[in-house]
Design goal:
Elements: H1 13-24, E1 37-40, E2 50-53, H2 58-66, E3 71-74, H3 93-102, E4 106-109, H4 111-116, H5 121-129, E5 132-141, E6 146-154, H6 158-167, E7 181-190, E8 205-218, H7 222-232, E9 240-244, E10 249-264, H8 265-275, E11 282-284, E12 290-300, H9 304-307, E13 316-321, H10 324-332, E14 336-339, H11 342-346, H12 348-361, E15 366-368, H13 382-386
Parallel strand pairs: 2-3, 2-15, 3-4, 12-13, 13-14
Antiparallel strand pairs: 1-4, 5-10, 6-8, 6-9, 7-8, 10-12, 11-14
Helix pairs in contact: 6-7
């Protein structure tokens, strides 16, 4: 839907998910432990509007109900571990899911898929910092490995064979279907006495004009496609080859980039505190340390930047939260870090998503939840609060 004319007719929850959410944050980019995608709700329901939040709380859900927005994109999945029951007496985050279902509201989560995606949470934070020459911190296969199927078909039968393998699942590349490559050539065979050639005669060396037909096949559909090929091919013993294809790589963990001009740790922390809804930014390292190359990991960086192949080139890590022992590890490595707060590092992406989704869905209301709040708050300065007014 993105880039197309805005729809004037109602669209379903499922269509928004398939045409808008899916391309923005492909689910195969998510970490294996994560729980992303549609977590609750009816795909066939007409979408009345979309509410974006970091955390789906009861206050956020009440906002969705009041504004008649029946699709909530909660960045953090409210269901992360398996649950055994969902009732009116549920507690924890499963309670808000039960309330969402009870009120006809679908819940979708992007989480680590959005972290890895182009233009996702890590790219947004890298943009706020002002990094240039940005690239992923690490790479991983972007999709399950595919196969390439190659067969050889008499020219007059190639369309029938191609259509059969397409229907079985071959020939899909992104949003394109029935993709193939064809090359004219000549095949030879000599049929023994026990054969019944569909072309030519047994006991004679035959030369047959053939088309080399190539197409990609998802690994899980290979058996179906080969069956369709053998069923449709005119030859008694059709020849075919299957080649493994290495999957493409995608950036999945964080980003790394360079500041246009070196900046001190203290200066960068203060600048980000003013730019982000951070209750309190913390630093690891000397405030006057000059920085150039920065790693970005929204949420919790853990030991990712410490264990990255690029670790020796990193001056500082900007993230949401850092564990005590990881902070000590940064210091031992001679690196710095800035912890902006978990929620604060992720929240700015919602405004970017709102604009992108609004462009795609047209008249459909897309809002960022006002009730979505950082669970942490800064303690007021007691000295300032107790100070007596000057006389």
């Amino acid at each position: 839907m993105a880039g197309q004319s805005k729809p004037s007719h109602p669209i379903s929850v499922g269509r928004v998910i398939a045409d808008v959410f899916g391309p923005m944050a492909p689910l195969n980019l998510a970490e294996s432990w994560d729980n992303v995608g549609l977590l609750a709700g009816a795909e066939q329901a007409a979408c009345t509007g979309i509410l974006l939040c970091v955390d789906l709380t009861e206050d956020v859900l009440a906002e969705a109900i009041k504004q008649d927005l029946n699709l909530v994109m909660a960045y953090h999945p409210p269901i992360l571990k398996p649950i055994t029951r969902l009732t009116s007496s549920s507690t924890g985050t499963d309670r808000v899911v039960w309330l969402a279902v009870s009120n006809g509201i679908a819940v979708y989560s992007m989480h680590t898929a959005l972290d890895a995606a182009d233009g996702g949470t890590n790219d947004v934070l890298a943009g706020i910092i002002g990094l240039v020459d940005v690239e992923p911190l690490s790479y991983a296969p972007a999709a399950p490995a595919e196969k390439k199927l190659v067969t050889f078909v008499p020219a007059e039968h190639v369309e029938a064979v191609a259509e059969a393998v397409f229907q079985a699942g071959a020939g899909r590349i992104g949003d394109y279907e029935k993709c193939s490559y064809r090359l004219a050539g000549e095949g030879t065979f000599f049929g023994t006495e026990s054969t019944s050639p569909a072309v030519g005669e047994k006991g004679k060396l035959e030369h047959v004009p053939e088309i080399r037909l190539e197409c990609v096949v998802p690994g899980h559909r290979l058996a179906h496609v080969v069956h369709a090929l053998c069923r449709t091919h005119p030859y008694e013993e059709p020849a075919f080859d299957v080649y493994p294809l290495d999957p493409p790589l995608a950036g999945v963990e964080g980003r790394i980039g360079r500041l246009p001009k070196p900046e001190t740790l203290g200066s960068l922390a203060r600048r980000l505190s003013r730019s982000l809804p951070a209750a309190c930014a913390q630093i690891v390292g000397r405030p006057n340390r000059r920085l150039s190359r920065i790693a970005v990991c929204v949420g919790a960086a853990g030991r990712r930047t410490l264990e990255s192949p690029a670790a020796t080139t990193i001056d500082a890590t900007v993230t949401g939260e850092i564990r005590h022992h990881d902070a000590l590890a940064y210091l031992r490595r001679g690196q710095c870090a800035i912890a902006l707060g978990h929620w604060a590092s992720e929240r700015p992406t919602l405004a970017v998503l709102q604009e992108r989704i609004s462009t795609a869905v047209g008249r459909l209301s897309v809002r960022v939840a006002r009730a979505d709040r950082d669970p942490f708050a800064a303690v007021p300065d007691a000295r300032a609060a107790d100070a007596k007014p000057a006389t």
